[in-house]
Each structure stands twice: as structure tokens, then as C-alpha cells.
Design brief:
single chain, about 250 residues, mainly alpha
């Protein structure tokens, strides 16, 4: 019973975490639910940028790629190499779209939060920021990753997938169960904490010395934002590959 109670308590903690707030927020009421409007707005902007860029880049494909098409193919090859390295040569193909979507959404979200002057858009409460600056977004991305690696393991091995919980010895059953709950926790808090800390670190010198001094800090923020997107995508691919291997 104790083993069953722990996952339930962990899920309750996830629900409580979704209520964590930093600063003020602008809310919408949709179907009886209260949602963070600024997160939806910036998320839609990021999605529109990704879809628009992809559409423009491939609307007239060339045999010898140039310009935007060349850049898109370079990004695709980068994501393929990442998925191939973490998942394996035989299994990586179907997971390239998922890994690529995670990487590009987080990367563009992080950079949009660091580069775009969201402050000029006035809201009744709060202000616009990167979608990954909200714990709800990072928890949702982490839970999608969890669903993905459970699906990968069950698709590959069926119910035999759950045999990994008693390997190499049944004594490790509680620890192996705990591992599946710590993975999304670490993914969500790592991304949320780093992006929030980066924005706070930039905000302080900007408020004190609004010209030259904050620029190096902003460049460092761009670098760490890209690294966080790469780390999240790499870990997501690694978890999926691990679920299909049958051993830790």
C-alpha cells in the first residue's frame, strides 16, 4: 500500500506545483477553467513562428538547398543525429518529429523570452514572457516526455516492459518506480529554474544600468537558453531509448 500511495502523493504534488506563481498573472476563463493568458499568447506566437518558418522554407524545395531550406535541413540533420545517438540506429526514425518539436519549441521559446521586447505589450495584469518561464509549461513538456517513453516501451515490449521494475532484483522495485516520477520532476524544474533565473539575472542589471553593462549578461542568457533546449531534448531521447532497451 505504501508503494501505491507514493505515486498518488507525487501526482498531487504535481497538481500543487502547477499553482506556483512568480509575480502577477493575466488570466482567461475558458470553459470554466482559469488559464494563464500570457503563456497561451506567447506559446501561440512561438508556434506560429515555427510553422511559418517551416512553410516558407519548404514551399519551393530545391534539389540543391540554399538559404532558408539549407538552414532547415541543417536543423533536421542535427535533430536526427541527436535522436540516432540516444535512441539507436534502428529505432530513432519515428521519434525524430517528437524530439525535434520539443527541441525547437523550447529553443525558440527561450530565445523569444530573451530577445523580444515583451514589455512594450501592456496587459491588465503581469507581462508577457517566455512560455518556459511558467512552471505549467515545463511540467506539461516533462509529462509529455514521460508519456512518450512509456508508449515507446509498451509498443516495443508489451506488458513485458514492466518487468524492468524488478531488474536486476525485485528489491529495487520501489527505487525503480521512484525513478519514473523523478524524471519528469527533474526535467520540469531544471528548465523552469534556469529560464526563470536567467530572466531575473538580466532584469536586475537592466533596471540598474539599462545600457552597456547588461549586454554580456544577455548574450550569456542566449547561450544558456540554447543549452537548456539541447539538454531537455537529449534527456527526452535518452529516456525513450532506455525504455526500449530493456536494461538500465
Amino acid at each position: 500500500m505504501d508503494i501505491l500511495q507514493f505515486p498518488i502523493k507525487t501526482l498531487n504534488h504535481f497538481y500543487d506545483i502547477s499553482g506556483v506563481e512568480v509575480g502577477q498573472h493575466f488570466y482567461w476563463q475558458i470553459g470554466g477553467f482559469q488559464v494563464h493568458a500570457q503563456v497561451l499568447i506567447t506559446s501561440w506566437i512561438v508556434i506560429a513562428v515555427l510553422l511559418g518558418s517551416a512553410t516558407i522554407a519548404v514551399r519551393d524545395p530545391q534539389i540543391v538547398p540554399t538559404g532558408a531550406q539549407n538552414f532547415v535541413e541543417y536543423v533536421l540533420e542535427f535533430v536526427r543525429d541527436l535522436a540516432r545517438t540516444q535512441i539507436g540506429e534502428e529505432e530513432y526514425g519515428p521519434w525524430v518529429p517528437f524530439i525535434g518539436t520539443m527541441f525547437l519549441f523550447i529553443f525558440v521559446s527561450n530565445w523569444a523570452g530573451a530577445l523580444l521586447p515583451w514589455g512594450i505589450i501592456k496587459l491588465p495584469h503581469g507581462e508577457l514572457a517566455a512560455p518556459t518561464n511558467d512552471i505549467n509549461t515545463t511540467v506539461a513538456l516533462a509529462l509529455l516526455t514521460s508519456v512518450a517513453y512509456f508508449y515507446a516501451g509498451l509498443t516495443k515490449k508489451g506488458l513485458g516492459y514492466f518487468g524492468r521494475y524488478i531488474q536486476p532484483t525485485p528489491i529495487l522495485l520501489p527505487i525503480n518506480i521512484l525513478e519514473d516520477f523523478t524524471k519528469p520532476l527533474s526535467l520540469s524544474f531544471r528548465l523552469f529554474g534556469n529560464i526563470l533565473a536567467d530572466e531575473l539575472v538580466v532584469a536586475v542589471p537592466v533596471s540598474l544600468v539599462p545600457l552597456v553593462v547588461p549586454i554580456p549578461v544577455m548574450f550569456l542568457g542566449l547561450f544558456t537558453s540554447g543549452i537548456q533546449a539541447l539538454i531537455f531534448a537529449t534527456l527526452a531521447a535518452a529516456y525513450i531509448g532506455e525504455s526500449m532497451e530493456g536494461h538500465h
